[in-house]
Amino acid sequence: MYTQGQSVLNRSFFPCQDTPAVKATYSALVTVPKGFTAVMSANKKSFGEKANRKGDTNCFSFEQTVPIQSYLIVLAVGHIKSARIGLRSEVWAEPSILESARNEFDGVVEDFLKTGEQLFGPYVWGTYDILVMPPSFPYGGMENPCLTFVTPCIIVGDKSLTDVVIHEITHSWFGNLVTNANWSEFWLNEGFTMFGQRRISETLYGRASMCLEATTGQNLLHRHIEHIGQDHPLTRLRVIIEKGVDPDDTYNETPYEKGFSFVCYLQSLVNDVEKFDKFLRAYIQKFKYQSIVAEDLFDFFLDYFPELKEKHVHERQGFDFAKTWLQGTGHSPYKPDLSASAELTGPVDLEIKRVTEVDVQDKPQEISLWTTYQLMYFLDDLSAKSPLSDASKQRLVLDYPILKQSRNAEIRQRWCEVVIKNEMLEHKEDIRSFLHSQGKQKYTKPLYELMMKASEDLQKFALEVYHETERFLHVNVRSYVRKILGLDN
Fold first, then answer.
1. Ranges for the Peptidase M1 leukotriene A4 hydrolase/aminopeptidase C-terminal domain (predicted)?
2. Which of 37, 50, 109, 118 has the most neighbouring CB atoms within 10 Å?
């Protein structure tokens, strides 16, 4: 059992001012049945040592001394155990997957935390634990203080998807410490977190690796905007959320990737990485424990760099902070320099050409040596070029069996996209298997959307798979999929 507060769900959990504009500390004493363990987004005071008023001793005591917004208060209870993965970190999971989870996160989490501290300042939250959620958990991760929730999809066996943890750790500064004051300003949380995540990744793994990951994200934003349209209001950084609209219904790639582009634009104005890193630390120091709006950021940036204020950089035509960035729709007016990714994309581009060209003489590369993001880039490009020729489809299946056999959820999701777009019905069981294995919204919705735009056979297949899995899906994901399938019309 677990609670999930973001965006406005904790009002059904406990009485609260359910807005990111309000922060508070909290403490809790939780009594659970014997054999079960409770964890919360707070530091543990005692486990099974303190009795409640009735004398029950299976009680767990928690205290969060840092003020947080209500949506970050979470509780999870289950038959879970923990394993140490770092100086200030444990991973919690059901016993059957605990060892796999420990192996996935051991030795990397403390590096992520230390690098974050070097870049952004002290980690103020005490412990940093991870709870591996059930497969139906609808998100990749959730940045609850002291207790990040993660999907089991990131437990691959090779640490290749642990950048999800880097993202959630980065929220310890951007989002949890400095917070958007309302959900129209969600990009302040996610845009800065994407930038911070990539600064940590660049520091640990090099610029080429970071740029390839960022390229993947930027391509995702591009496809999203092309799908919903350049003029769609959800492509604005500052989204207008009308009365009665659930903020979750405005969720998309824009606050993440367009927000990242804006922070990169600010860095380009400064034109000095170290100076901009110092600005980020000053920004956190200035606004920590507070909830802010975009104008607070703009004013602080211009005051911190008076020479830029004198040049009126915030009013430059086509790049002005308010009109173009906050209110403008469509693609970002500034494209970050991600050219360093060519070191890793070069070999992939050659292989894409090999798959798609008419006459092929060369033998395929051993793509099992590629990184996860190289494989993602490969499949993303082939998906964008779909439908492929019959020869290309045959080549893809015969020469690259690793794609179909992968346990990596990012690869599996993209493989399923290629299968759907190319009507490769002989591989449709791969789609069924993947949708049965997880319920992550980011993976599940796009596959159903693609199937419902495909042939009648795949539309029927989509309905069949949904009815097999609907009880397994999180209520929010189930609602979205039902709309896609036309079941609520």
1. 343-485
2. 109
**Are the C-beta atoms of 285 and 44 separated by less than 8 Å?**
no
Inter-residue contact 69 to 63 (CB < 8 Å): no
Residue 228 · residue 330 · CB < 8 Å: no
Q: Which tokens hold the place of 214?
A: 């960022």
- The span from the CA of 420 to the CA of 411, in Å, is 14
Residue 129 tokens, joined = 């634990």
Other C-beta atoms closer than 10 Å to the C-beta of 135 total: 14
d(CA 84, CA 158): 18
Task: Identify the CA nearest to 349 among candidates 368, 369, 365.
Answer: 365
In this predicted model, which residue has the larger pLDDT, 199 or 56? 199
The C-alpha atoms of residue 392 and residue 398 are separated, in whole angstroms, by 10
Average pLDDT over the chain reads 96
Residues 6+ away with beta carbon under 8 Å from 53: none
Residue 52: is its pLDDT beyond 80? no
Phi-psi region of 126 (alpha: psi -120 to 50; beta: other; left: phi over 0): left
Whole-angstrom Cα distance, residue 252 to residue 176?
Answer: 20
Helix, strand or coil for residue 53?
A: coil
Q: Is 5 annotated as a binding residue?
A: yes
- In this prediction, residues 35-55 reach a mean pLDDT of 80
Exposure letters 55-76 (e unless 16+ CB within 10 A, then b): eeebbbbbebebbbbbbbbbbb
Instruction: Please report, as a single letter, which amino acid is at residue 273.
Output: V
pLDDT in tens, 96-119: 999 999 999 999 999 999 999 999
Is residue 190 part of an annotated ligand binding site?
yes
Check if 168 is active-site: yes
> Does 400 show up as a binding residue in the annotation?
no
- Give the pLDDT score at 46: 78
Distance CA 48, CA 38 (A): 10
Is there a binding annotation on residue 218?
no
442 marked as part of a ligand binding site: yes
